[in-house]
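Example complex used in Figure S2.
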Amino acid sequence: MSEFDLIKRYFTRDTPGALLGVGDDAALLQPSAGRVLAVSSDMLVCGTHFYADADPYLLGHKTLAVNLSDLAAMGAVPRWATLAIAMPGADEVWLERFSAGFFALAGAHGVELVGGDTTRGPLNLCVTIFGEVQAAQALRRGGAQADDEIWVSGEPGNAALALAHLQGRVVLPEDDFAVCAPALYQPQPRVALGLALLGLASSAIDVSDGLLGDLGHILAASGVGAAVDYAAIPVSDTLRRYPQLEKQCVLSGGDDYELCFTVPASRHDAVLRISEQLGLPLTRIGRIVAGHGCCIYDAAGNPINPESGGYDHFR
Amino acid sequence: MSEFDLIKRYFTRDTPGALLGVGDDAALLQPSAGRVLAVSSDMLVCGTHFYADADPYLLGHKTLAVNLSDLAAMGAVPRWATLAIAMPGADEVWLERFSAGFFALAGAHGVELVGGDTTRGPLNLCVTIFGEVQAAQALRRGGAQADDEIWVSGEPGNAALALAHLQGRVVLPEDDFAVCAPALYQPQPRVALGLALLGLASSAIDVSDGLLGDLGHILAASGVGAAVDYAAIPVSDTLRRYPQLEKQCVLSGGDDYELCFTVPASRHDAVLRISEQLGLPLTRIGRIVAGHGCCIYDAAGNPINPESGGYDHFR
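Predicted assembly (630 residues):
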């Protein structure tokens, strides 16, 4: 199978929303009137982000999901993506499953694959994703203000617990792993939540590197601090059974791809309504304060020192 | 050095042409009025596209150049790029030089780096580039018509000769290698040529995989054939000294990043004027014919059978 046959067979689908899709030197894209393009690139590397024996269907899903999560955090409507793949060889069984997982999620979010690259090399997956948003409405990191409430979606920490099991730092019974694994293998990008937060949230970020680290990016960009009530953070029943890992997974575990966002306290009830509409747990976990840095308090009001910040590839 | 310090130090520059650049979940980009975005992604992999000891300054240049070349082939004005890097560790000397080479070429073409990703892994460089073009004017592969002239820029084959030397398939004296090496290490994307061809060329492609293979993409997309006069193809004096490699380098050698394009025969003189204005050799090498496939003829009018098609990562 040639490189071009491979692209045609596995990575060429109709792109009615693009002026020009796969098959020329570049794709041609036009955002809707009054919208600008939101653009993000993420790279997943075998041995760093996933294991070589990762289920290719789930990997295809996750490769796109982590990028959709960035659009969710901007409140952008997903439109298009490019996909560059380096791989050791053209394994057709793998490609069939990978592309099926990729396109299943793409279809669910209306994303068209408009270009990319395929090359030989250690397995590496790089997606650039394109969404559209009204520029003035986009959810940025820098808009949090003192007294805003801090919210998080879902139950952060499950993906980190599943990873701890894979890394041998804990041994989970099959039932517990089954509960956590979907967060790691098949994260659900919170695109609908990001769109619902337009005009409501003062800032937003996706939790890819860990709740504290990512909240820290909001604080730094906004020039504010935060007080987080650890007891308020929703923790899954499964993760609660591993107290030795719980705080680390909740505060510093990445890969859940939930959203962390801030809203003015006056809009508290509007957030609860969104939670109900989307059927997605949204929980207030603290508030923005003047100053800088993030203090975390336990149920008794005593400060907690987290063991580490967010995930960092080079620290 | 943390991942975020690294991004800040080496990959964050002003982006006055973007609504939002590096540092949020996504960049926000708006093409100029009446223009659409031309988007392309290319991935360069250590061991496949370059050697581990490649000069990082030149590698930074080439990483962007191969992407600019795709915009050139569309006739698009370069605007922005994202850069995703996987690397084994944070080597500051390497990063300093790599980013210097990248930004030197970016500055020369008005490209702003608006986002990307940095992660640990085998060295891999993935750029997505964004240009803008009037949709109806963009140079596509599918517009060639019978009797159009086929042109090529520069002297294709030099990069392939330099690569043959590095691979030990030929031993070049230092002077000869010095002549060819810039084509391989520091290709000059033909952006100005692509822009000059707007409204003139009926099709265009950049020669990244080899002249015949890439011309073949034009023929397939346009539903036509070609008759190429081998003797007309400009070959460097250096490459002529290696007759055992010449045809292979000229016809099937990739990596020169010249443009191959077609124009109606009535516009022949307009192409010559562009050549003069740009100080860039442009040479008519054949013509489009009805039918399909590409026939190459030697000076006596006898057909030449090239040894292979273009470069293919998986054949």
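The CA atoms of residues 57 and 142 of chain B lie 36 Å apart. The mean pLDDT of chain B is 93.
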